[in-house]
Amino acid sequence: MVARGPALKVRGPTEEELTQAKSFFWKVAGVVAAFILVVVGISGPVYAFTLVSCVSTRNCYVGSLLISINASCKEGTKDGRSETLLHGDTCTLQCGPGLEGSVPMLQCDDGVARGQEGLRCQLPNVPTGILPVVATLASGAVTEGSKQTACYRAQYLQCQAAPGGASILVKLPDMTKGACDDLFAECRILNPAFSFTEHVQSAVALAYAENRDNKTLRDIAALDPGTCTLGCFVELVPEDKLVAYENALFEATEAAAAMQTFPGVQNDDTGSACDVLPGPACVNVRGSCNAGDDGDYYKHPLCVTGIPQWSTVDTSRRIRYDGIAERGQSGKWLLEAGANVLESGYGEESARQPSFNPLPVFGGSIWNFKCHIRPSIDSSYIIYRNLVLELMECSCTAEQDCNGHGITVGSKVSGANCKCICEKNFAGDNCEIPLCQAPGVINALSPSCKEGPFLYPGTRCTPACRPGFLPSKPFFTCATDGSSVIGGIFECSSGGKDMASLAGNAEEYGGATTTAFPKCTEKDCLYRGRATGERRLDGSCICECLPGYSGNQCRDQLGNCTAPLTKDILNGALSTCLEGQKINKICTARCAEGYYGLPAILECQGTALVPSKFRCFGGKPVSQTWCEMMQSVTIAMSVVCFLALFTACCCFQRHSKRKWTAWFTGVQLIEQSKDDLGHFNVVRSDNRPDKHSRLPTRIMALQHEVDMLALEDAGNTSFDMPFGQQALENQPRSRLPLEESSKDPSSYRQPGSLRQLGDGSKEVWGDEVDIPRYDSKVSHPVSITSAGGFLQMQLPDAFPAGGWSSNALVPSPRLRKGREVVLSSVPGRPELDGARGWLIEFRNRTGLWQVDLEGAELLDVPESCLDEATTVAVPGIPFADREVKKLVDTAWLVKSRDLEKQIDKSRKKKQAKFAGAANQAQEARQASLLKVIEETADERDQLEDVMLQALRVGDGEGMRGAISRSNELLKDLVDAPPTVTAGFRRLLETAESRLEQHDERERTRASKREYEERVAKGDAADWKMTSKEFWRHAAECAPERVQAGLKAKLSVFLRSTDGMRSSILHHACREACTDEVGSDTARRRLEVVMLLLDAKANADAVDFKDRTALDLAIA
């Protein structure tokens, strides 16, 4: 037998354990989810703006760019050069000795070096002299009065400026530039304190300068040409430099042999007329305050007053000796501009050296400068300053003569004989032309361009690929600045047949040759220029192109094209062409950032671009788009995480159990508790001694006894007497009815309760029922009506006024709403006695009626002060004893209203009467106007035809008469509706506008004819006359034309260019000997000669045969 024990029972988890396990699981899941949300919410923005940053930080490779301009970075490596710049780094440009960069630094911005456009090393600009500070008005300065006496009044003024400051001595309006300069010269003679002048043009003068044909502006500008300011300033010079300058000036004046200290003084071998006189062949000037003065000055073959002179290569400036004693009192050596180096005349003075030696003081010395400065278009300065000017030995320098891109060969001892050996990527006489270097391309020949390793700006590069490879593009163009090849780097790819194989074995029939290049002719310049005879490295001829052509061999024709408009180029840059708005040769397409233009080059042919427009392709790269999308996704995830955490915190937080408190309703305490279902319901109402009623005391005073009686009749309630006592502690607590205090309380009988009354009416006495506030001593019956649980008491007519105490409940009103009443004995308003009104509303809380006093005022009045209008009581008498008096007369209000109505009616009647008369006058005027319109209809049509015909043929006089008659006609139709005269007025305004234009043109033509007549008579300047015509008129004895030329400021000091060196007086007197005595020709010739002499023509000037004009006249 097998003994079997009791079966083993395995107990499973209970329901409570399962619930706890599930709760634990969800708690752990919630913690993990919250942790993930917090991590994602915090790390999302960090990931979006750091790890997934869309801002590229590529490096900039500036090594080749710096090598091309022979510069380096100060922040570079040990050798002073930096090949690569990180994103955000800067490179402070450092050029060779004596040079400075066109920009101070380069900054790397995502692979682009900001500032590389037009980067070059250049000579530093010499700052021009300007006023040290803003000038201030000196005390006693001349600012008004006559201009002729201004210098006389300012001759004793002193410069009141501090060192480094400026002071204004004279400031006068309405002066021209020439008059201002003349006034400055005059004032400097009387008062040497004057050291600068400034002329600022007026706004009208500037406007007239832009539009010379506007006669109105001319007349206004003549009245207000500008403001002239004269003043002085004090140089701020350190004491040591001042002493050094004074010593140098003393030595320069006393040392006659100062020229021996200058190196190369005996190197003058020009063989000219000044060969026997000492002086260097070239002088380098530095330190002038006038732009263009600095540079090399070469010794000129001709002398001035027997002393050598030095001039620039273009003869625009020279250094000469002033041989006139009157002009050279402040120094003999003069630096001037605009003078003829072949004559001894004077140009515009720039500086004067206070030296009287036959040679200037070389090296650094003080010069008295007359600085001409024009800081803006409307102002100009002339400042006298003492500055150090250096006259140094000339030498060939790579920076000055080769623009820093080559090696100089030669010297300037005997002239401008410097030659430049340019670097391989520059060309030109002075290495001023940057060349494009052929790019390095895989599978391409070396060089990769068939034209050679370097290309001139604007020329094409034809790709040269190895046999078996073809270029990706047919050609590329070198940029105008030589910086790069436009169009990108080409590729040589396989897949096509080499063009060289098409030639077969043609090379076997030819070979190398050593035949010299033929001479360059105009044919090589395409008959668009002159061949210079030289050739470039590629063998092409160098040409001097005619105007309108440029480029290699004058192949490019300069056009006059306009760049495409930005609105016509989708995704285009603000300036669509790299070359600017006006295009002469090519337009390099410019697009917005991230886009490229196709075609990249537009050619200017005549006045149109070929093709006329380009298109911009490209946009944001895929990497940037993906990056921005990832940023948006991460930011959105962070926002979602934040909202999820916020929602979880709001929804799953633990709330404390709600606690309910008791509250009062009236004097009743209401408490709450849970019922069996767990909801909150009202379960009981109770009063507690520690709670007080929230009702106002005045209400409790009126209701306390009624409430206590009601509570006593309520039966078994939970009313707590101490609470009632505490709530009503300040009120009388005796029970009604009230008796004499002397009576025995035992004589009181229990009054009946009001609740014992059934429905219906009953007349009771005061001692039969307990009525609140009713005095039972007064034996008057009270009618009580009980219905539906409500009681209504009706007092008898003889009820005494004191039957209710002041604190009694408000009884029902005896009056009804809407009744007309009369006021009497209103407290504080005696003026209302006898006034009438209507009852609006009875206020139960206050026991007062709201009365409308004749619509003028709303007033709350006690019922005791009101009586119905049918029965007016005398105030102050009890109601039972009142006698009916005569009604108060308030009819005056009604009469007043009736009078007002009559006045309004009369006023309206008068208005209607006057309105009828006005309408009749209006109808009469309207009829008269219609009659005038009908009578003038034909005349208006006729005037319209006349004005239209005059407009077609341009008849000004006919139009003038029609306009005059039309204006008179419109005066009669001034009140006519617009539909009648609108078209006629429009045509009239058009005619008046055209007539005004016609008159303006006629005035312009008349003014032009008048000017031409005045020019022909010699009364006005002929600004179109040339010097050649001026000399011809002098030879033809035309005094009127000569006078017109003199008024046009034509020079009388020029000499002929035919080698005769004759003056204009020689031409005027050449045929004088052939004139008959007393003839008209002789008289006119004499007038011409007198005019020329009055114009300061040199009567002693001699020609190449040493003959004066008088010698020719009497020969």
From TrEMBL:
This is EGF-like domain-containing protein. PROSITE patterns: EGF_1, EGF_2. Keywords: Membrane, Transmembrane, Transmembrane helix. InterPro entries: Ankyrin_rpt-contain_sf, EGF. The chain crosses the membrane at residues 24-49. Residues 730-761, 991-1012 are annotated as: Disordered. Residues 543-554 form the EGF-like domain.
